[in-house]
Amino acid sequence: MAPGASDRKLRIAFVAYRGNMNSGGQGIYLWFLAREMARMGHEVHVLVGPPYPDDMPWAEVERFPNQQFWAKWVLEQYDEIVPRTDPLQILSPLDFYELAASRIGFLPEPFAFSVRVFRRMADLLRAGRRFDIVHDVQCLGYGLLGLKALGLPVVTTVHHPLTVDRRASFVRDETFKDAVGTMKFYPIGMQAFVARRLDTVFTSSEVSGRQIVQDFGVRPERLRNVRNGLDVELFSPDPGVAKSDASLLTVGRSTDPNKGIRTLIRSLAKLPDHVTLTLVDDDSPDNQVRAWAREVGVLDRLRLTGRVESEELVRLYREAAVVVVPSRYEGFGLPAVEAMSCGTPVVATRAGALTEVLSLTEGGVLAERDDPDSIARGVRTLLENTEARALMAKRGRERVLETLAWPRVAAATAEVYQEVVDRNRAERRRRRWSAPVAIRPPA
Q1: The whole model's pTM is what?
Q2: How many domains does the chain have?
Protein backbone atom coordinates (compact mmCIF):
# COMPACT_ATOMS: atom_id res chain seq x y z
CA MET A 1 0.00 0.00 0.00
CA ALA A 2 1.24 3.49 -0.81
CA PRO A 3 2.26 5.71 2.11
CA GLY A 4 -0.77 7.36 3.63
CA ALA A 5 -3.18 5.24 1.61
CA SER A 6 -5.24 4.35 4.66
CA ASP A 7 -5.77 8.09 5.30
CA ARG A 8 -7.57 8.66 2.00
CA LYS A 9 -11.23 9.45 2.42
CA LEU A 10 -13.50 6.96 0.72
CA ARG A 11 -17.13 6.99 -0.38
CA ILE A 12 -18.48 3.77 1.11
CA ALA A 13 -21.89 2.20 0.43
CA PHE A 14 -22.96 -0.37 3.02
CA VAL A 15 -25.75 -2.77 2.05
CA ALA A 16 -27.57 -5.02 4.54
CA TYR A 17 -30.87 -6.80 3.99
CA ARG A 18 -31.63 -6.70 7.75
CA GLY A 19 -30.19 -3.86 9.77
CA ASN A 20 -31.55 -3.96 13.31
CA MET A 21 -29.25 -5.02 16.14
CA ASN A 22 -31.87 -7.51 17.34
CA SER A 23 -31.70 -9.24 13.95
CA GLY A 24 -28.41 -10.80 14.93
CA GLY A 25 -24.72 -10.01 14.66
CA GLN A 26 -25.10 -8.49 11.20
CA GLY A 27 -27.09 -5.53 12.55
CA ILE A 28 -24.57 -4.85 15.32
CA TYR A 29 -21.69 -5.15 12.86
CA LEU A 30 -23.32 -2.77 10.37
CA TRP A 31 -24.09 -0.04 12.91
CA PHE A 32 -20.71 0.06 14.63
CA LEU A 33 -18.54 -0.37 11.55
CA ALA A 34 -20.45 2.34 9.66
CA ARG A 35 -20.14 4.65 12.68
CA GLU A 36 -16.39 4.11 12.92
CA MET A 37 -15.93 4.74 9.21
CA ALA A 38 -17.78 8.05 9.58
CA ARG A 39 -15.61 8.94 12.60
CA MET A 40 -12.54 8.31 10.44
CA GLY A 41 -13.82 10.87 7.95
CA HIS A 42 -15.14 8.53 5.27
CA GLU A 43 -18.43 9.30 3.53
CA VAL A 44 -20.96 6.65 4.52
CA HIS A 45 -24.12 5.70 2.60
CA VAL A 46 -26.28 2.87 4.03
CA LEU A 47 -28.86 0.93 2.00
CA VAL A 48 -30.78 -1.32 4.38
CA GLY A 49 -33.86 -3.53 4.68
CA PRO A 50 -36.22 -4.15 7.60
CA PRO A 51 -36.09 -4.42 10.53
CA TYR A 52 -34.20 -1.15 10.28
CA PRO A 53 -31.18 -0.06 12.35
CA ASP A 54 -31.16 2.52 15.10
CA ASP A 55 -30.64 6.10 13.94
CA MET A 56 -27.40 6.76 12.03
CA PRO A 57 -27.09 10.56 12.03
CA TRP A 58 -23.55 10.36 10.66
CA ALA A 59 -24.62 8.49 7.51
CA GLU A 60 -27.01 8.87 4.60
CA VAL A 61 -29.51 6.06 5.12
CA GLU A 62 -31.94 4.67 2.54
CA ARG A 63 -34.55 2.18 3.69
CA PHE A 64 -35.81 -0.56 1.37
CA PRO A 65 -39.17 -1.84 2.63
CA ASN A 66 -40.51 -5.28 1.84
CA GLN A 67 -43.72 -7.04 2.80
CA GLN A 68 -41.94 -9.55 5.10
CA PHE A 69 -44.06 -12.35 3.67
CA TRP A 70 -41.90 -15.13 5.11
CA ALA A 71 -42.48 -13.94 8.70
CA LYS A 72 -46.21 -13.58 8.05
CA TRP A 73 -46.48 -17.16 6.78
CA VAL A 74 -44.52 -18.49 9.77
CA LEU A 75 -46.55 -16.48 12.29
CA GLU A 76 -49.79 -17.38 10.45
CA GLN A 77 -50.67 -13.71 9.96
CA TYR A 78 -52.63 -14.56 6.84
CA ASP A 79 -54.90 -11.51 7.08
CA GLU A 80 -51.83 -9.26 6.77
CA ILE A 81 -50.32 -10.84 3.66
CA VAL A 82 -52.20 -8.62 1.20
CA PRO A 83 -51.35 -4.93 1.87
CA ARG A 84 -54.54 -3.10 2.85
CA THR A 85 -53.50 0.27 1.48
CA ASP A 86 -52.40 -1.00 -1.94
CA PRO A 87 -53.47 -4.63 -2.56
CA LEU A 88 -52.13 -4.66 -6.13
CA GLN A 89 -48.63 -3.98 -4.83
CA ILE A 90 -48.05 -7.72 -4.37
CA LEU A 91 -48.24 -8.10 -8.18
CA SER A 92 -45.06 -6.07 -8.69
CA PRO A 93 -42.31 -8.49 -9.82
CA LEU A 94 -40.15 -8.54 -6.67
CA ASP A 95 -43.08 -8.51 -4.25
CA PHE A 96 -44.74 -11.35 -6.13
CA TYR A 97 -41.47 -13.30 -6.14
CA GLU A 98 -41.15 -12.85 -2.36
CA LEU A 99 -44.77 -13.89 -1.84
CA ALA A 100 -44.44 -17.05 -3.96
CA ALA A 101 -40.98 -18.05 -2.71
CA SER A 102 -41.85 -17.59 0.97
CA ARG A 103 -45.09 -19.54 0.51
CA ILE A 104 -43.17 -22.65 -0.50
CA GLY A 105 -40.55 -22.27 2.24
CA PHE A 106 -37.69 -20.34 0.64
CA LEU A 107 -36.10 -17.26 2.23
CA PRO A 108 -36.51 -14.63 -0.53
CA GLU A 109 -35.17 -11.52 1.24
CA PRO A 110 -31.45 -11.63 0.31
CA PHE A 111 -32.06 -12.00 -3.44
CA ALA A 112 -34.91 -9.48 -3.63
CA PHE A 113 -33.05 -6.93 -1.51
CA SER A 114 -29.91 -7.24 -3.64
CA VAL A 115 -31.93 -6.56 -6.82
CA ARG A 116 -33.56 -3.50 -5.23
CA VAL A 117 -30.12 -2.22 -4.23
CA PHE A 118 -28.74 -2.83 -7.72
CA ARG A 119 -31.56 -0.81 -9.31
CA ARG A 120 -31.14 2.04 -6.82
CA MET A 121 -27.35 2.16 -7.19
CA ALA A 122 -27.67 2.20 -10.97
CA ASP A 123 -30.01 5.20 -10.67
CA LEU A 124 -27.58 6.98 -8.33
CA LEU A 125 -24.65 6.41 -10.68
CA ARG A 126 -26.65 7.69 -13.65
CA ALA A 127 -27.47 10.80 -11.60
CA GLY A 128 -23.76 11.45 -11.06
CA ARG A 129 -23.19 9.95 -7.58
CA ARG A 130 -19.88 8.18 -7.11
CA PHE A 131 -18.89 5.41 -4.72
CA ASP A 132 -15.41 4.02 -4.16
CA ILE A 133 -16.50 0.70 -2.68
CA VAL A 134 -19.60 -1.32 -1.74
CA HIS A 135 -19.56 -3.36 1.48
CA ASP A 136 -22.23 -6.05 1.69
CA VAL A 137 -23.09 -7.36 5.16
CA GLN A 138 -23.95 -11.04 4.77
CA CYS A 139 -26.60 -10.70 2.03
CA LEU A 140 -24.69 -12.19 -0.93
CA GLY A 141 -27.60 -11.81 -3.33
CA TYR A 142 -27.17 -11.99 -7.10
CA GLY A 143 -27.78 -8.25 -7.41
CA LEU A 144 -24.28 -7.65 -6.03
CA LEU A 145 -22.86 -9.08 -9.24
CA GLY A 146 -24.80 -6.38 -11.05
CA LEU A 147 -22.96 -3.78 -8.99
CA LYS A 148 -19.66 -5.33 -10.05
CA ALA A 149 -20.81 -5.18 -13.66
CA LEU A 150 -21.30 -1.44 -13.14
CA GLY A 151 -17.60 -1.21 -12.30
CA LEU A 152 -17.91 -0.96 -8.52
CA PRO A 153 -15.57 -2.96 -6.29
CA VAL A 154 -17.70 -5.06 -3.92
CA VAL A 155 -16.62 -6.72 -0.68
CA THR A 156 -18.69 -8.73 1.76
CA THR A 157 -18.59 -9.87 5.36
CA VAL A 158 -19.36 -13.49 6.24
CA HIS A 159 -19.06 -14.24 9.96
CA HIS A 160 -19.69 -17.87 9.12
CA PRO A 161 -21.25 -19.52 6.06
CA LEU A 162 -24.94 -20.46 6.17
CA THR A 163 -23.89 -24.10 5.80
CA VAL A 164 -23.13 -24.01 9.55
CA ASP A 165 -26.69 -22.93 10.35
CA ARG A 166 -28.12 -25.50 7.95
CA ARG A 167 -26.23 -28.31 9.63
CA ALA A 168 -27.50 -27.13 13.02
CA SER A 169 -31.04 -27.04 11.64
CA PHE A 170 -30.73 -30.64 10.45
CA VAL A 171 -29.78 -31.63 14.00
CA ARG A 172 -32.95 -29.96 15.26
CA ASP A 173 -35.26 -31.42 12.58
CA GLU A 174 -37.50 -34.26 13.73
CA THR A 175 -39.25 -35.29 10.50
CA PHE A 176 -38.48 -35.66 6.81
CA LYS A 177 -40.73 -32.64 6.18
CA ASP A 178 -38.59 -30.61 8.59
CA ALA A 179 -35.43 -31.64 6.72
CA VAL A 180 -36.94 -30.67 3.36
CA GLY A 181 -37.87 -27.29 4.85
CA THR A 182 -34.27 -26.82 5.97
CA MET A 183 -32.97 -27.65 2.50
CA LYS A 184 -35.28 -25.08 0.91
CA PHE A 185 -34.84 -22.29 3.44
CA TYR A 186 -31.13 -21.50 3.25
CA PRO A 187 -29.96 -19.74 0.00
CA ILE A 188 -26.56 -21.43 0.12
CA GLY A 189 -26.14 -21.95 -3.62
CA MET A 190 -26.66 -18.26 -4.35
CA GLN A 191 -24.44 -17.07 -1.52
CA ALA A 192 -21.57 -19.39 -2.46
CA PHE A 193 -21.83 -18.40 -6.16
CA VAL A 194 -21.73 -14.68 -5.32
CA ALA A 195 -19.02 -14.94 -2.64
CA ARG A 196 -16.63 -16.59 -5.12
CA ARG A 197 -16.98 -13.60 -7.47
CA LEU A 198 -16.60 -10.64 -5.12
CA ASP A 199 -13.35 -8.74 -4.65
CA THR A 200 -12.76 -9.66 -1.00
CA VAL A 201 -14.56 -11.63 1.71
CA PHE A 202 -14.08 -10.34 5.26
CA THR A 203 -14.42 -12.75 8.14
CA SER A 204 -13.81 -12.68 11.87
CA SER A 205 -11.73 -15.79 12.61
CA GLU A 206 -9.38 -18.27 11.01
CA VAL A 207 -11.90 -21.05 11.67
CA SER A 208 -14.62 -19.18 9.78
CA GLY A 209 -12.18 -18.48 6.97
CA ARG A 210 -11.44 -22.17 6.55
CA GLN A 211 -15.16 -22.94 6.62
CA ILE A 212 -15.85 -20.36 3.90
CA VAL A 213 -13.11 -21.84 1.72
CA GLN A 214 -14.42 -25.37 2.27
CA ASP A 215 -18.18 -24.75 1.98
CA PHE A 216 -18.39 -21.75 -0.38
CA GLY A 217 -15.33 -22.47 -2.51
CA VAL A 218 -13.85 -18.99 -2.02
CA ARG A 219 -10.13 -18.84 -2.87
CA PRO A 220 -8.04 -18.33 0.30
CA GLU A 221 -6.27 -15.27 -1.14
CA ARG A 222 -9.63 -13.47 -1.37
CA LEU A 223 -10.25 -13.83 2.38
CA ARG A 224 -9.26 -11.25 4.98
CA ASN A 225 -9.66 -11.89 8.70
CA VAL A 226 -9.93 -8.51 10.44
CA ARG A 227 -11.79 -10.04 13.41
CA ASN A 228 -14.99 -8.63 14.88
CA GLY A 229 -15.26 -5.46 16.90
CA LEU A 230 -16.77 -4.58 20.26
CA ASP A 231 -18.13 -1.41 21.84
CA VAL A 232 -15.66 -1.36 24.73
CA GLU A 233 -17.22 1.82 26.14
CA LEU A 234 -20.54 0.07 26.71
CA PHE A 235 -19.12 -3.33 27.63
CA SER A 236 -16.82 -2.21 30.43
CA PRO A 237 -16.10 -3.10 34.07
CA ASP A 238 -17.64 -1.20 36.97
CA PRO A 239 -15.73 -1.52 40.26
CA GLY A 240 -18.87 -0.42 42.08
CA VAL A 241 -20.79 -3.55 41.05
CA ALA A 242 -20.44 -6.41 43.51
CA LYS A 243 -19.57 -9.71 41.86
CA SER A 244 -21.24 -12.94 42.87
CA ASP A 245 -19.08 -15.81 44.07
CA ALA A 246 -21.31 -18.56 42.67
CA SER A 247 -23.40 -17.15 39.81
CA LEU A 248 -22.84 -18.34 36.25
CA LEU A 249 -24.12 -16.47 33.18
CA THR A 250 -24.72 -17.76 29.66
CA VAL A 251 -26.08 -15.94 26.62
CA GLY A 252 -27.58 -18.27 24.01
CA ARG A 253 -30.75 -19.71 22.54
CA SER A 254 -31.63 -23.21 23.67
CA THR A 255 -33.35 -23.76 20.29
CA ASP A 256 -29.98 -23.48 18.52
CA PRO A 257 -28.07 -26.77 18.87
CA ASN A 258 -24.80 -24.94 18.19
CA LYS A 259 -25.10 -23.08 21.51
CA GLY A 260 -24.68 -26.27 23.56
CA ILE A 261 -27.21 -25.27 26.23
CA ARG A 262 -28.26 -28.84 27.04
CA THR A 263 -24.65 -29.78 27.76
CA LEU A 264 -24.37 -26.74 30.01
CA ILE A 265 -27.43 -27.81 32.04
CA ARG A 266 -25.87 -31.22 32.54
CA SER A 267 -22.64 -29.59 33.72
CA LEU A 268 -24.59 -27.46 36.23
CA ALA A 269 -25.79 -30.68 37.86
CA LYS A 270 -22.14 -31.62 38.48
CA LEU A 271 -21.41 -28.39 40.38
CA PRO A 272 -22.10 -27.64 44.09
CA ASP A 273 -25.73 -26.92 44.95
CA HIS A 274 -25.10 -23.24 45.73
CA VAL A 275 -23.93 -22.53 42.16
CA THR A 276 -26.69 -20.98 40.04
CA LEU A 277 -27.09 -20.25 36.33
CA THR A 278 -28.68 -17.22 34.67
CA LEU A 279 -29.52 -17.88 31.03
CA VAL A 280 -30.28 -15.00 28.66
CA ASP A 281 -32.86 -16.79 26.55
CA ASP A 282 -36.59 -16.96 25.89
CA ASP A 283 -38.39 -17.20 29.23
CA SER A 284 -41.69 -18.60 27.92
CA PRO A 285 -43.13 -21.59 29.86
CA ASP A 286 -42.55 -23.97 26.95
CA ASN A 287 -38.80 -23.32 26.65
CA GLN A 288 -37.28 -26.81 26.48
CA VAL A 289 -34.41 -25.80 28.75
CA ARG A 290 -36.74 -26.12 31.74
CA ALA A 291 -37.41 -29.76 30.91
CA TRP A 292 -33.67 -30.40 30.59
CA ALA A 293 -33.06 -28.78 33.98
CA ARG A 294 -35.88 -30.78 35.58
CA GLU A 295 -34.39 -34.03 34.22
CA VAL A 296 -31.10 -33.48 36.09
CA GLY A 297 -32.58 -31.82 39.18
CA VAL A 298 -31.36 -28.23 38.75
CA LEU A 299 -34.55 -26.39 37.81
CA ASP A 300 -34.48 -24.41 41.07
CA ARG A 301 -30.93 -23.22 40.22
CA LEU A 302 -31.85 -21.90 36.78
CA ARG A 303 -33.12 -18.41 35.93
CA LEU A 304 -34.30 -17.39 32.45
CA THR A 305 -34.21 -13.66 31.75
CA GLY A 306 -36.06 -13.35 28.46
CA ARG A 307 -34.78 -10.72 26.02
CA VAL A 308 -32.80 -7.98 27.76
CA GLU A 309 -31.64 -4.54 26.68
CA SER A 310 -27.93 -3.82 26.27
CA GLU A 311 -27.62 -2.00 29.59
CA GLU A 312 -29.18 -4.92 31.48
CA LEU A 313 -26.92 -7.39 29.65
CA VAL A 314 -23.88 -5.38 30.72
CA ARG A 315 -25.10 -5.46 34.33
CA LEU A 316 -25.47 -9.24 34.16
CA TYR A 317 -21.95 -9.62 32.76
CA ARG A 318 -20.52 -7.42 35.51
CA GLU A 319 -22.28 -9.29 38.34
CA ALA A 320 -21.49 -12.84 37.23
CA ALA A 321 -18.60 -14.76 38.74
CA VAL A 322 -18.01 -16.64 35.48
CA VAL A 323 -19.55 -16.51 32.00
CA VAL A 324 -19.87 -19.90 30.33
CA VAL A 325 -19.89 -20.30 26.54
CA PRO A 326 -20.65 -24.01 25.93
CA SER A 327 -21.05 -23.76 22.14
CA ARG A 328 -20.63 -26.55 19.63
CA TYR A 329 -19.59 -23.96 17.00
CA GLU A 330 -18.88 -20.22 16.97
CA GLY A 331 -17.73 -18.11 14.05
CA PHE A 332 -16.41 -15.57 16.55
CA GLY A 333 -17.97 -15.88 20.02
CA LEU A 334 -19.25 -12.40 20.83
CA PRO A 335 -20.64 -13.25 24.32
CA ALA A 336 -17.17 -14.40 25.41
CA VAL A 337 -15.62 -11.13 24.26
CA GLU A 338 -18.41 -9.04 25.81
CA ALA A 339 -17.91 -10.82 29.14
CA MET A 340 -14.15 -10.28 29.17
CA SER A 341 -14.61 -6.64 28.21
CA CYS A 342 -16.84 -6.29 31.30
CA GLY A 343 -14.12 -7.77 33.49
CA THR A 344 -15.56 -11.27 33.89
CA PRO A 345 -13.55 -14.43 33.10
CA VAL A 346 -14.91 -17.06 30.73
CA VAL A 347 -15.13 -20.82 30.48
CA ALA A 348 -15.51 -21.65 26.78
CA THR A 349 -15.47 -24.85 24.78
CA ARG A 350 -12.88 -25.74 22.16
CA ALA A 351 -15.39 -25.07 19.39
CA GLY A 352 -15.03 -22.96 16.28
CA ALA A 353 -13.34 -19.64 16.92
CA LEU A 354 -13.55 -19.79 20.71
CA THR A 355 -10.09 -21.34 20.97
CA GLU A 356 -8.70 -18.43 18.91
CA VAL A 357 -10.53 -15.85 21.02
CA LEU A 358 -9.32 -17.27 24.33
CA SER A 359 -5.78 -17.59 23.00
CA LEU A 360 -5.87 -13.97 21.88
CA THR A 361 -7.33 -12.53 25.08
CA GLU A 362 -6.13 -14.95 27.78
CA GLY A 363 -9.27 -14.07 29.70
CA GLY A 364 -10.53 -17.53 30.56
CA VAL A 365 -10.12 -21.29 30.37
CA LEU A 366 -11.07 -23.82 27.72
CA ALA A 367 -13.17 -26.96 28.16
CA GLU A 368 -13.95 -29.80 25.79
CA ARG A 369 -16.98 -29.51 23.53
CA ASP A 370 -20.06 -31.60 24.39
CA ASP A 371 -18.43 -32.62 27.68
CA PRO A 372 -20.37 -31.67 30.86
CA ASP A 373 -17.57 -32.96 33.12
CA SER A 374 -14.95 -30.82 31.37
CA ILE A 375 -17.12 -27.69 31.54
CA ALA A 376 -17.86 -28.31 35.22
CA ARG A 377 -14.12 -28.72 35.96
CA GLY A 378 -13.35 -25.42 34.22
CA VAL A 379 -16.05 -23.59 36.17
CA ARG A 380 -14.97 -25.14 39.46
CA THR A 381 -11.34 -24.14 38.81
CA LEU A 382 -12.32 -20.49 38.52
CA LEU A 383 -14.93 -20.44 41.29
CA GLU A 384 -12.44 -21.92 43.76
CA ASN A 385 -9.61 -19.51 42.87
CA THR A 386 -10.52 -15.87 43.43
CA GLU A 387 -7.02 -14.68 42.56
CA ALA A 388 -7.02 -16.48 39.20
CA ARG A 389 -10.44 -15.00 38.38
CA ALA A 390 -9.22 -11.49 39.14
CA LEU A 391 -6.07 -11.95 37.04
CA MET A 392 -8.00 -13.30 34.04
CA ALA A 393 -10.58 -10.52 34.36
CA LYS A 394 -7.87 -7.85 34.23
CA ARG A 395 -5.92 -9.50 31.41
CA GLY A 396 -9.04 -10.21 29.35
CA ARG A 397 -10.19 -6.59 29.50
CA GLU A 398 -6.74 -5.27 28.53
CA ARG A 399 -6.41 -7.64 25.57
CA VAL A 400 -9.90 -6.88 24.28
CA LEU A 401 -9.04 -3.16 24.34
CA GLU A 402 -5.80 -3.82 22.45
CA THR A 403 -7.13 -6.13 19.76
CA LEU A 404 -10.93 -6.07 19.42
CA ALA A 405 -12.12 -2.50 20.07
CA TRP A 406 -14.07 -1.12 17.10
CA PRO A 407 -11.54 1.63 16.19
CA ARG A 408 -8.84 -1.00 15.70
CA VAL A 409 -11.09 -3.31 13.64
CA ALA A 410 -12.39 -0.41 11.53
CA ALA A 411 -8.87 0.82 10.79
CA ALA A 412 -7.84 -2.66 9.60
CA THR A 413 -11.00 -2.85 7.47
CA ALA A 414 -10.32 0.56 5.90
CA GLU A 415 -6.83 -0.57 4.90
CA VAL A 416 -8.33 -3.49 3.00
CA TYR A 417 -10.88 -1.16 1.38
CA GLN A 418 -8.02 0.94 0.02
CA GLU A 419 -6.19 -2.12 -1.28
CA VAL A 420 -9.34 -3.24 -3.11
CA VAL A 421 -9.99 0.25 -4.51
CA ASP A 422 -6.38 0.61 -5.73
CA ARG A 423 -6.46 -2.85 -7.29
CA ASN A 424 -9.77 -2.10 -9.01
CA ARG A 425 -8.45 1.19 -10.44
CA ALA A 426 -5.26 -0.47 -11.66
CA GLU A 427 -7.28 -3.20 -13.36
CA ARG A 428 -9.48 -0.63 -15.10
CA ARG A 429 -6.40 1.23 -16.35
CA ARG A 430 -4.88 -2.02 -17.58
CA ARG A 431 -8.03 -2.91 -19.50
CA ARG A 432 -8.23 0.58 -20.97
CA TRP A 433 -4.63 0.51 -22.21
CA SER A 434 -4.86 -3.05 -23.52
CA ALA A 435 -8.09 -2.43 -25.46
CA PRO A 436 -7.55 -2.82 -29.22
CA VAL A 437 -7.33 0.46 -31.14
CA ALA A 438 -9.26 0.66 -34.37
CA ILE A 439 -6.98 1.61 -37.32
CA ARG A 440 -8.74 3.41 -40.10
CA PRO A 441 -7.62 2.41 -43.63
CA PRO A 442 -6.01 5.14 -45.74
CA ALA A 443 -8.38 7.14 -47.91
Answers
A1: 0.89
A2: 2
